[in-house]
Each structure stands twice: as structure tokens, then as C-alpha cells.
Amino acid sequence: MRYYPAYPGRTFLPRTKTSTKFFNIVSRALHPIDSLARMRLPSRTDTQISRAKGWMVADLGLDMSYFVALGSDEIFRANSLWNKKPFLQSSRLELEDHEPLRKLAVDPRILSPVAHYLGSKPVLADAVIWYSPNDQELVGGSQFYHFDNFDTRQVRCVFPLTEITERSGPLTIFEADESERIYRKLIKSGRIKRRSTKVLDEWIYPLTIKDPIQVMAGPGSVIFVDTDNCFHYGSRPAPESRMVLMLEFCTSGARDLPLWGRKPKTWNTASERSVFGLNHLFFYKARSRVDKARAESLDPGDGLE
Ligand SMILES: O=C(O)CCC(=O)C(=O)O
Ligand SMILES: [Fe+2]
User: Fold this and answer.
1) Please, what's the b/e burial string for 163-193 (b: 16 or more CB within 10 A of its CB; e: otherwise)?
2) How does pLDDT run across 60-92, given as a tens digit for each residue?
3) Least enclosed by CB within 10 Å: which of 2, 66, 222, 245?
4) Which atom of ligand 1 is nearest to the CA of 132?
5) Whole-structure pTM value
């Protein structure tokens, strides 16, 4: 709390669906003008994500060479969080430094499906390159089925930078409706008590009706997935490594955004302001506190880094 004074959603509330929903409603109510503006959705593009499924792959023929080069760059890695989780090494991209990233994040082919799925114009919460060596397993991490518990709904856009096949530790998911069914059964049987618990395969597989899906795609495509509502894992040990660009979109009421003191920096276009303006990484006060917490090794973990 010392480091997150404007973030009660991070520090006070338990990570349950009810408190996430509650926070979302309160937060939007406290920022009525922004919330209303976000309800005017962009026009629909050809491909849209179904809420029952909670995921989709679109082959957009994107040129990812800029990001491939970044991910392979030694200097970039050296200045990054690259070694935080050994099985999923991440490197944050600063929006200010990467024009191709800003362009990609407001591309209507990305934004429209995300906005329609969320029901409001999204906030970009994070942009990272993930490298998965796929050479070890750590019990209790995101290599086991889990929900992310970030918002009531979120959309992660995963852009493969190398070909993702069954040999490169693909993201593996259950569709949203199937995940909800499985979750209710796990709760009912007393296997788990809360939504944030990582779940073993052998607990899940006897309960399923639909099969899990290994999401495979190559550079140029984008995988949309609601990791708050689809059980998922990724980066399990596999013969080949994997590198992706991951953009995370949430609603303006997400519990990991500040509840007050929102003074975003200015952006060039209305679209940039709407998508990047609430990115918590631009709340410099909060960020400097987090840097301090890190320096003192008190950083409470994933998320605001
Ligand atoms: O490794 C992956 O693809 C999934 C990672 C994940 O689920 C997470 O970090 O929450
Ligand atoms: Fe996850």
C-alpha cells in the first residue's frame, strides 16, 4: 500500500470475481465522462470475438519484422526484465519509444474486435515481448491452468514472432463457456476455493465436455484471448522455444488501474489518448514508487512493474 496509494484495487480487495466486478463499477462511476465516451464503440470489422468462446485467431498478414528484431536484440534484452520468470521471460516496450507499437495498438483490425468484446473502448494495460525457452517446469506458475483475474474481461493480443506449433509450448486454453463450467465444478467439489488458484490437469480433464485448444499461429497473425475467462497455460517444456509480442487490453474499470489521481500525459490523436491515456505505466508518480519498491526488493510481484 505504501507504494500503491492510488491503487486500492491492487492492495485492498481480494482477487475474486465479485470484488473485481465491484471495483469495475465503482471505478467507472467515479470517471463518468471517460466511461461514457468509451461506450461509443468503433465500427465492426470482419472478424469479431465471440463471448462464448473468448478467443479467436485472425490472420492479418501483419509485418512483424520490427518486433522480431527487437526481441532478438541483445541490448534490449540486457535492459529488460528478461530473466524474471525463467520459463516466461518478458521485456516491456515503452510506448513512447516504439512508433510501430503505437500504430499496431490502435489498428482498427485489433481495436474493433477488442472493443466489441469488452463492450467499451479499451485501455492498453501492457505491451511486452515474451520469450519462452520451454526448457523447464515450475510448479505453481502460469504453466498450469489458471485465470488471470485482471478485470471482469480482458483481451490479450498475442502476436507470434516465431511460428507457434505444438512443438513450441503453445498457449493452451479452454473456451470461455467451457472454462466457466469447469470452474463451477471445481468450486462445487471443493477442489479449489478461489479463482486465482492454479489447477492441475488431472483435476480438470475428468470434468471437461470440450477439448482444450492449443492455439497455434505464425508471424502476421494475432491470437485474441480473454485470459480472465478462459482457463489457460503456456510455455510448458517443449522441443522449441517461442517468442511473441503481447498486448494486454482491459476496460477502464480494471482493478489494476489507479482509482484516483489519473492525470495521463497527452497524446497525438484521440485514439491514442483513449487507448494509451490510462495505461498505468504513464502514471509517473506511481511508476517512480514502483521503481523504488523494486530497488528495495519489495516489489510485490507481477503486474505494475
Ligand atoms: O506462457 C504463456 O503463453 C501464458 C502465460 C500466462 O498465462 C501468464 O503469464 O499469465
Ligand atoms: Fe495467464
Assistant:
1) ebbeebbbbbbbbbbbbbbbbeebeeeeeee
2) 999 999 999 999 998 888 888 887 788 999 898
3) 2
4) 1
5) 0.91
